[in-house]
Design goal:
With 268 residues, the chain is an alpha/beta fold. It is built from 7 helices and 11 strands. It is globular.
């Protein structure tokens, strides 16, 4: 189920409680969790297959639901950037986006006193070069009363990797090495958290401020519960495969989802 943290001015961050307290065989559950009904030869409704029947029943246990890769639930859980907990950080890091929505969780985290500065990244957008992503977010924040001295603006990057690489010297010039970051990302952009850990090796903990984007093709909103029926489904499935490849191949550092954000695995 989806939970939200609210701050003054509106809803803030969402995170997922990975448990289900009802019957897995309802139509909404089957749509969300990729389950189906096996019918008996006489056409009558049979058992639910493809996942757990009920928690505590004969299906996987609660803690195993997240491992149902190959199902909609497994895909969503794997790419999901959200994690419980949101604490104080050295900086708020906004990945580049053409959408204005990313400015809202950044503003609310700043106003809540969780971090002193917002890092805005992104240069000219590939599909619309006159749109400089970081500058658009800066204008949105200025219009809401956030002063320019609370922002670090990176204007040249064109990819998520460059968002981090180009912002790093600006961050370290202003703050030195940072250890804790609030990352502002779409809910399915877990990969960005790993990119942040790779590009800022001093970072020990990353909190995720997630937001729900509209689908690129038709502009319709969706969230973690409704993504499978959205026009962005192919993007998210592609992201799942790509992130799985990068992590399994050791091309990105591992991170653990904890009760207080994402952290690097403890070394033995």
């Amino acid at each position: 189920m989806q939970r939200s943290l609210s701050f003054a001015g509106g809803p803030m961050l969402s995170f997922v409680v990975r448990a289900h307290d009802g019957d897995w065989s309802t139509p909404s559950d089957r749509a969300t969790y990729g389950l189906r009904i096996r019918r008996n030869r006489d056409g009558r409704r049979g058992e639910v297959v493809g996942g757990p029947r009920k928690l505590g029943g004969q299906g996987p246990a609660r803690e195993q639901v997240a491992d149902m890769t190959g199902t909609d639930a497994g895909t969503a859980d794997f790419v999901d950037a959200s994690a419980p907990g949101l604490g104080r950080a050295d900086v708020i890091f906004v990945f580049g986006s053409t959408l204005p929505d990313a400015a809202t969780p950044a503003e609310q985290a700043l106003r809540s006193g969780l971090a002193p500065l917002i890092v805005l990244t992104g240069g000219p957008n590939r599909r619309n070069p006159v749109h400089v992503e970081s500058e658009e977010h800066a204008r949105a924040l200025l219009a809401r009363g956030i002063t320019s001295d609370r922002m670090i603006i990176e204007r040249g990057s064109r990819t998520s990797v460059e968002n981090v690489a180009f912002a790093r010297p600006l961050i370290e010039e202003r703050l030195g090495r940072v250890r804790t970051v609030i990352a502002v990302v779409k809910w399915w952009q877990r990969r960005q958290l790993h990119l942040l850990a790779a590009g800022l090796p001093s970072v020990e903990r990353i909190y995720a401020a997630t937001w729900n984007p509209p689908a690129r093709a038709d502009g319709r909103p969706y969230n973690r519960s409704t993504w499978a029926s959205s026009a962005d489904r192919p993007r998210i499935e592609s992201e799942y495969r790509y992130l799985k490849k990068l992590l399994s191949g050791g091309e990105l550092p591992q991170l653990d989802r904890t009760a207080a954000g994402w952290t690097r695995p403890e070394q033995d």
